[in-house]
Amino acid sequence: MSDTSKPVIGIIGGTGDLGSGLAKGWAAAGYKVVIGSRSREKAAALAPELGAGVIGEDNVGAASAADIVVLAVPFASHDATIEEIKPAVQGKIVVDAAVPLVPPKVSTVQLPGEGSAAQIAQRLLGDGVKVVSAFHNVGAAKLHAGGRVDCDVLVFSDDKEARAAVIEIAGAVANRGVGGGVLANSAAAEALTSVLIWINRHYKVPGAGISITGLEGAAQA
Amino acid sequence: MSDTSKPVIGIIGGTGDLGSGLAKGWAAAGYKVVIGSRSREKAAALAPELGAGVIGEDNVGAASAADIVVLAVPFASHDATIEEIKPAVQGKIVVDAAVPLVPPKVSTVQLPGEGSAAQIAQRLLGDGVKVVSAFHNVGAAKLHAGGRVDCDVLVFSDDKEARAAVIEIAGAVANRGVGGGVLANSAAAEALTSVLIWINRHYKVPGAGISITGLEGAAQA
């Protein structure tokens, strides 16, 4: 069931592993979710499996329908997808969850020259879009298994209100969202993804994540 | 009390906040610790306050006396200090704990062009030195308060045995050491330091850290 006081969440790359897992989690938490895909047919076919009321559209359709647009596409299609949805997301919050992995060495940190995928997104989208970076370290397998994932979600943005809005939706799919500072700090979470892939392989675990310690008694913010 | 089966740990920059905190922790865990400083007198005066048997030397003296050499200097003196101790650390493990903060914006990630401070250290020290990266995210205040710090320590190296040796000494000052992959992955922990500084300020906590989730039942490694 969806709640009209909550933002509509559009997920670009919503038929992928992370995108569909996030859709499932937000639908279960009562959000209206629209998944987008290059193929509208594919998205429409998958949508009902992810929860009651989940709708499938093409990427531009999902971006147009949503209040908060989550970008969950492989880094190889990151820039082209951003150019495609750019007109539909002006004035909105765009949450970049793309990780700049460079195959085949996905367990080695190889950040882009610009610093982070999130900073590239902000440059391409322009100042009319509030770019937030989050969800890089949430295990897709755990999302599909149902229930909230046992990890924290670091949330970065140059816009305070946009950061707060994404901290709130993060708390619906993981233990909690934790603000991590300006958009440039996204480099930390993007780099951590390669570290967590290495840990999964080395320690033979399905979905390592991170938790922030020392926040007991923290000021609300 | 020190244990002769354990490696001797030398701490370059051992009179600083992080260095002296680590010295205190390792001394309490039974390691023989030699702290180094630019001023031998300063190190010798502080050493007895950090634990029984802690010795103070100049930086080269501490590097010469140790099996494992920990570099805990500000990034501004990182390269010069490495050049100074280079002859004394050939064949040894050097643990780079330096964080590439760029004042005044220390809560904004600003990684060096080479990727990480640790990769700079490896290049300067040459292939005869096993560089490991660790301890970027351990709160010095918590070390000085005594007891192990409630966080995990990510440990990066291109050398498997060196990584294992540092994972072991990390477990003496924090919850545990966790391998994080190759030295290039140090970028993640170095970037995280700025994120944690931001979190400390924003949430008004004294020492945020990280913990790796999902390691229950992990293979020993």
From TrEMBL, chains A, B:
One example of a Gene Ontology biological process annotation: NADPH regeneration
Gene from which the chain derives: npdG
NCBIfam families, per the entry: npdG (TIGR01915)
Keyword field: Oxidoreductase
Coiled coil residues, start to end: none
UniProt keyword Cytoplasm present: no
Domain Pyrroline-5-carboxylate reductase catalytic N-terminal: 9-100
Record protein name field: NADPH-dependent F420 reductase
Pfam family, one: F420_oxidored
Organism: Borborobacter arsenicus
InterPro entries: NAD(P)-bd_dom_sf, NpdG, P5C_Rdtase_cat_N, STEAP_metalloreductase
Signal peptide positions (record): none
SUPFAM superfamilies: NAD(P)-binding Rossmann-fold domains (SSF51735)
